[in-house]
Write a sequence for this structure.
């Protein structure tokens, strides 16, 4: 199944649906008996009780009338996760790393989430550059604590496209991850949450991110340094993961390039739909378009192409 939230002029806002061909079937009423505060939390309840609710959802889909996708506004498929865990430096970078990096990660604020059709807003801060990392994210399906890598995949509910927005190298030095990663709008997800039975091997998926139609990142999840079972094992040894928690699995950094005002971003992890967002910078700053690998190949200083115009340009 592919779950999504949508707004519709007749049905209302934040309706929970399941993709059906070129349309979406509203299944909100079929699962409204589950405990939740408002519709935005309904997907968390569905995830936590999926074995029970799946037959009711499937029945609602088979008997329901799809609403055309072009008549709805798609919202984030998991708007209220309890937490977002992100893996850091988790790719072998096209073989340019000769040894696996140490396993590492960080928290990203759930308030950073936006959905397809949303806008990443670049804040008024002196970042060296703004980037968005193409990532496969998994969603936890049941309470998960101190699980082994052999058991880890039993705790996965499904998968989503995920863009990890970053405001790089903010002062003061050494005080980075939270202020770099957790800005509002810096966690685009969606358009769908795809159940794991539709993904044969999450560690063999093509990932493709374009900026204004130009391919900037293209890699396969097989290049992960620490595969998904190991990531879950490591995270669950530190803290308990709950149904609806998000784990972003990292990116290949070589294709990263600046995000700027007016950019149109599209991310597609194979089988998960296309996540489309735009970028807005009220300060209208600009950078060169070189990727990290292109910048390095030119022998230029620093890891990023320099800012060319606007506030904070040097």
């Amino acid at each position: 199944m592919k779950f999504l939230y949508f707004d519709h002029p007749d049905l209302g806002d934040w309706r929970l649906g399941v993709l059906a061909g070129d349309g979406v079937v509203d299944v909100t009423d079929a699962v409204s008996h589950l405990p939740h505060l408002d519709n935005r939390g309904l997907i968390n309840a569905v995830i936590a009780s999926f074995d029970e609710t799946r037959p009711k959802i499937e029945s609602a889909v088979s008997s329901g009338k799809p609403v055309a996708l072009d008549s709805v506004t798609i919202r984030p498929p998991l708007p209220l996760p309890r937490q977002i865990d992100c893996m850091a430096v988790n790719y072998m970078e096209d073989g340019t790393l000769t040894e696996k990096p140490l396993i590492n990660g960080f928290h990203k604020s759930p308030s950073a989430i936006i959905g397809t059709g949303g806008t990443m807003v670049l804040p008024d801060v002196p970042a060296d550059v703004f980037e968005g990392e193409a990532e496969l994210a998994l969603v936890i399906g049941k309470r998960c604590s101190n699980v082994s890598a052999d058991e880890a995949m039993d705790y996965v509910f499904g998968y989503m496209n995920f863009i990890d927005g970053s405001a790089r190298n903010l002062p003061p030095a050494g005080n980075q991850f939270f202020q770099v990663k957790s800005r509002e709008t810096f966690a685009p997800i969606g358009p769908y949450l795809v159940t794991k039975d539709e993904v044969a091997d999450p560690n063999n998926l093509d990932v493709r991110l374009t900026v204004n139609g130009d391919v900037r990142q293209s890699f396969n999840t097989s290049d992960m340094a620490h595969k998904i079972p190991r990531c879950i094992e490591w995270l669950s040894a530190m803290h308990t993961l709950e149904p609806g928690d998000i784990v972003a699995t990292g990116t290949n950094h070589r294709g990263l390039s600046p995000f700027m005002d007016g950019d149109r971003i599209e991310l597609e992890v194979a089988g998960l739909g296309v996540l489309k967002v735009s970028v807005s910078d009220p300060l209208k700053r600009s950078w060169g378009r070189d990727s990290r690998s292109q910048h390095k190949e030119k022998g230029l200083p620093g890891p990023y192409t320099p800012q060319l115009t606007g506030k904070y340009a040097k």
User: Anything to note?
Assistant: Residues 217 and 255 are 5 Å apart (CA to CA). The first helix runs from residue 42 to 48. The first strand starts at residue 2 and ends at 8.
